[in-house]
Amino acid sequence: xxxxxxxxxxxxxxxxxxxxxxxxxxxxxxxxxxxxxxxxxxxxxxxxxxxxxxxxxxxxxxxxxxxxxxxxxxxxxxxxxxxxxxxxxxxxxxxxxxxxxxxxxxxxxxxxxxxxxxxxxxxxxxxxxxxxxxxxxxxxxxxxxxxxxxxxxxxxxxxxxxxxxxxxxxxxxxxxxxxxxxxxxxxxxxxxxxxxxxxxxxxxxxxxxxxxxxxxxxxxxxxxxxxxxxxxxxxxxxxxxxxxxxxxxxxxxxxxxxxxxxxxxxxxxxxxxxxxxxxxxxxxxxxxxxxxxxxxxxxxxxxxxxxxxxxxxxxxxxxxxxxxxxxxxxxxxxxxxxxxxxxxxxxxxxxxxxxxxxxxxxxxxxxxxxxxxxxxxxxxxxxxxxxxxxxxxxxxxxxxxxxxxxxxxxxxxxxxxxxxxxxxx
Length: 425
Fold this sequence. Notes:
The protein is 5% helix and 48% strand. It has 425 residues and is mainly beta. The chain has an 18-stranded antiparallel β-barrel. The two termini are 21 Å apart. 42% of the residues are buried.
């Protein structure tokens, strides 16, 4: 049972590994999924109403460590369709795709891809380790994470993926369905302003005590320079502090601080992020570009005697523009190893979005059209059951349901279900 519990715990802790990449060690992993449901995108479109079969998706990942080099890559392919479940399946499209099973209940054309359930259709990373503790990397998805942040548990193509920050979108109130997403720059090889994880990066790690890194993200130019930096200090077994910046020397720079307290059975994570947007270089520009800051925390409780891992988390977003209220979410993930081959898991969350006080101000020119608007809410629940056949094969059945109440009180009920087959070598 402890071995089964380790599968869930590893997903929580892999980002703390000194040389962690998308795949934490050499090997091959293939994930095949088939899914169906009622999608969020165009859910009220008369031409797309009803339950749909989405087809098949295959994600192949491989990592090789040879001498001082590490090479890894991923391809996400699909035999996609958009058919009613009672129709003939005559519209399959085989393509390299960004779509994942997570996409169908989370994609929204507004709010940015990083909160909409998309993933890159491929990644390729090259790393060299010329000296002990030194990494030089170039890649499209260098996952160099220095500290904790709101979790999605797995990558979007993996069977345990769930919505981030309760499904809140990255936008100002009224510009997307339920808003209040804060970006936490703990992955210093990402560049939020450019919507990319492609970077040229270097870092130095002294054992598991210190990490210092710099990254030059894809998309920067001489006229619009930017770079990212990360720092992690682990002076004691029970304590880690991390600091990172995204987009340094630009007025859209994002700051991050994270703390980790490891008490063996209980792990406490806390994080703070400042998204400094706007027209000027001030720390908190008071503009409608909606600069914001957020904070949150999570507790991971592991009880190996009964094979249980529980991780509740909470987060708050505060807009710098005075007319916008705050947003918040509460969520949690449960993994329970039942017997030697089954793991029952579930994620559930509820989120409440930010609103504009002018919607309720009788003196505002928009009051008549917006007086009934509010921040909206999202309730999500995603149970899953994993059957571990052997050390190579596992099968996961999932069901994801969301009730989304938009700021204009429109309600969407969406869901998806399906099967994953994961092979690891």
